[in-house]
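Dear colleagues,

As part of the handover before I leave the project, I'm documenting each prediction I ran so the next person doesn't have to rerun anything. This entry is a single chain, and its sequence is reproduced below.
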Amino acid sequence: MLSVAAFEDGLHALAFPSFGSERTGAPVLSFCRIDDKPLRSREQIAEPDALIVQDPTLLHQVDVFAGLSDDGRVLINTTRQPEELGLGEVVDRLGPGRLLAVPATDIAREHLGRPLPNTVLVGAFSAFTGVVLIDAVAVAIKRRFVGGGEQPDAPARRDPPRGAVMDKPFAITLDVGSSLANKTGTWRTERAVHVERMPPCNDACPAGENGFFRGVRRVCDERGALLILDEVQAGLGRTGRMWAFERFDVVPDAVVTGKGLSAGMYPIAACCFNDRLEAHYEQSPFFHPSSYAGSEIGAQVVQALLAQYRDGGLLGHVDQMGARLEAGLRDLVASFPDRLAGVRGLGLMLALDTLSDAQGLELTRSCFEHGLLAIFAFNRQSTLQVMPPLVIDEQEVDEVLERLRAAVAAMP
């Protein structure tokens, strides 16, 4: 939207996102260059002139200020003051008036009725820097949100702003947050909500909390939206059910699956959907062609895998091993209350919480030293992900617990 506003203002602009390895829920960067001359550089921005932070929880998870110039500007979506966020050193380095806190989410809720802080932040950026006129921002917003094909009047084009800010291409890094409100921000289209059920990586959807998914399903039905669930990690028996949503008394309109779909033997993914969506493909079969769709070999591998689930034995096994592993983890928490906080999860998709991010990182290191491959959750570094193979047996569960106990005991 910022690049569109710059274009409406008679400037040249380039914008593109960069996604994290976990996709849904991972920190997301968006880059934007603005200049009064044609732009040729299309790589990521290493030294931005300005930084917009949409989710303040990222401030101490990743180094969002890396490369920011000493005369740069920072705009943060927060109701707190910079000092409360632990940014005193950043304020001192940049100088007065160069770091601005704006309660963008609250403003969006009040005036738009939806948690869309990006819209407010673009307007705040215009007022904060003067790089793009506010009239151009208004046109960009209207073009994005006004329905019925209405085209608002464009602002009068103007000469580029004079001064240091345009002496070189203006580089902006947007840090998009990973909070649940942002992920469900797709409600603004009133077409689809995409949720990934991944308990070890964050506690946005606490294990065993059925009300959340029933609430999402209800809102989708009320607004005529589709509910799409990402079961790439949680599906195919990982939680003791074929699909994790079976645990929560919810039926989605579409399910995305992959990874374990071929037991790691062949790269393949699938999107499964209900009759409502199938009807659309019957009417428009070439609506979504793909260069990589269809795989006879992959289909054979998937059929062989699904045959392992048909008698229900594997799912029952996951339930039994998951219960054994969870009980052992809870004993471990009781033995080390000064290092461990609790256990969450379902089946063989478990999370072991430590008391701090530093302890989560230290536990990961200690596990490696004790011959156990387990890693902290990237979005919640205080949490160790415990997700062994579904075919693990009792002896192997006990060995995991023994090694994990030794790893916790060895933590400083």
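The longest helix spans residues 313-335. The chain has a mean pLDDT of 80.

All the best with the project,
I.
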